[in-house]
Design goal:
Elements (H helix, E strand, L loop, with lengths): L3 H9 L4 H24 L4 H8 L3 H8 L7 H10 L16
Helix pairs in contact: 3-4, 3-5
Length: 96
């Protein structure tokens, strides 16, 4: 029987694995940030989804890190929160 660490080590050695892992990490972090903002406001997923012009199930997938959002979607979510979307590049160590 193979343990998770061994499987992960093998998979991370495959071509493109690190890029895919980074994309999944970013999707998870964005979803978590939106969920935190939503919960701080006491909003339900349904309320935010309606305000952002999306379905509750799509928002749930996004918050769980299951989808990589477009900039247009992030902008709609920011507008729903009456917030400003800020995208920037930081020079330095990789976030991985």
């Amino acid at each position: 029987m193979t343990g998770w660490d061994e499987v992960r080590g093998r998979r991370m050695g495959e071509p493109g694995a690190e890029v895919a892992y980074d994309a999944a990490r970013r999707a998870f972090e964005l979803g978590a940030a939106v969920r935190t903002m939503r919960e701080e406001r006491g909003w339900t997923q349904t309320r935010l989804a309606e305000a952002a012009g999306m379905t509750q199930s799509a928002l749930a997938r996004f918050e769980a890190g299951g989808t990589i959002p477009t900039l247009a979607l992030l902008e709609r979510i920011a507008q729903a929160f009456e917030a400003r979307l800020v995208v920037r590049f930081d020079v330095g160590d990789s976030a991985a």
